[in-house]
Amino acid sequence: MKEEVTSLLRQIITDFHASTLPVPVEREGDINLIPRGVRKAVTFVGMRRSGKTWAAYQRMHRLIASGLDPHKILYLNFEDDRLRPFAAADCQAILDAYFSLYPDLAERSDLHFFFDEIQEVDGWELFVRRLLDQERMAIVLTGSSSRMLSREIATALRGRTLTREIFPFSFREYLRSQGIVFEGRLTSRQIAALRHHREIYQTFGGFPEAVIMGREYHRELLQGYIETVVYRDIIERHNIGNAPIVREFVSYCLQNSATLLSVNRIYQRFKSMGRAVSKDLFYGLMEHLEDAYCLFTVPVFSTSAHERARNPRKIYGADPGLITAYSIKPELDRAARMETMVFGELRRRTSDIFYVKTSSGREVDFLATDANGRRELLQVTVSMSDPGTAAREAGALVEAMGELKIARATIVTEDEGEKRITTKGKKIHILPAWRWLIGL
């Protein structure tokens, strides 16, 4: 039996090396492996269909472009039907098969093993730890299923892995998928194109498959993604029996992205409709959805843990396209899609994000702290053309800047010109969304 498994693996490895490696849209962010000599695996984490496998392909392309012999790359997808069932006892056959094909590489330290959907192998943790302890290859892991989410795969290695988050396309990545790359000073025609594509991206989002297939498949694809999350990542894996409640809760959250979430209010809403539910169910569902990278919650900024717990959180879908996919009246969701789009870009940069409630009760959409400790206040509004709106948005920022001792802040508008204003000694930069998203 062992020889049969080894023979099968030899065939799969040979087929992989004989195939043409898919060419993904270039993803941004740090997907590089860790420095040589550091014995940790890298785990790509993110929502289903956000591009974790394609991030692995991108890493392979970079390795080959740097001069690495492609045969020094091993890739196995454990959802391959030929590898089912595959258990921990079979894992040694991976090494046996690979080194029987390439015996001259047995002592090399520049090998790279990619294990996709690793959670399909019972006991995989012991095998990966053994590789880290006894072998010298770099290891990349991905996974996302009802058995184990990608975040839990990283946790299972207990400090022996570094995580790299993979989100749906950013606006820059979306532009790249359309063959659009801008450098240097932009022409009027280029700016018009960026405005046009910002509108498309804000409406339909950046899930790679949906971008590639086109907007006519958008609703079907994204609702399918959410259905998979609901049934496999929540109902199936947490043994929750009330599927209609779960589906309705998720739809409610996506339809109300960029708003304050009150579990008590949701509980009262369902209770008034005669539904037999508990608050604990909704708290649990929100936690499960965050674990699946499907929804995110943002707490109020406060140095007091009690205040953060006492105030409701703001909720955001993983992608603005999810709002459109679940919207009853899409034309009314413009502001929510825009704020969700901005949140998504912020979340790619940092997980240290809050909303701010000033002492007078005014609200600022985001307070974010980057990896260098620099704090940024950000307000999002469709338009500043109305004097009342302009005064309200700037006034909230000025008050928050004073209370938090932050000298600069930004207002992101949908499509208005760039300018800087100074109010009460506070400098506020007003930017159109397309420019803020691409960082020009």
Q: Which helices and strands appear, and what pairs or packs with what?
A:
Layout: H1 2-18, E1 41-45, H2 52-65, E2 73-77, H3 92-101, E3 112-116, H4 124-134, E4 138-142, H5 150-156, E5 161-165, H6 171-177, H7 188-204, H8 208-213, H9 218-238, H10 243-255, E6 259-261, H11 263-272, H12 279-291, E7 295-298, H13 305-310, E8 313-317, H14 320-326, H15 334-349, E9 353-357, E10 363-369, E11 375-380, H16 387-404, E12 408-413, E13 419-423, E14 426-432, H17 433-438
Parallel strand pairs: 1-4, 1-5, 2-3, 3-4, 11-12, 12-14
Antiparallel strand pairs: 6-8, 7-8, 9-10, 10-11, 13-14
Helix pairs in contact: 1-3, 7-14, 9-10, 9-14, 14-15
User: In DSSP terms, counting alpha (H) and pi (I) runs of 4 or more, how many helices?
Assistant: 17
Total strands: the figure is 14
Classified in CATH, the superfamily of the largest domain is P-loop containing nucleotide triphosphate hydrolases
Main beta sheet strand tally, sense and closure? 6 strands, mixed
Give the C-level CATH assignment of the largest domain. Alpha Beta
For the record, the count of structural domains works out to 3
Q: Largest beta sheet: what is the strand line-up?
A: 9-10-11-12-14-13
Please give the CATH architecture of the largest domain: 3-Layer(aba) Sandwich
Radius of gyration, taken over Cα atoms and rounded to an integer in Å? 24 Å
Strand content: 15-25%
Overall 3D shape: globular
According to CATH, the fold-level topology of the largest domain is Rossmann fold
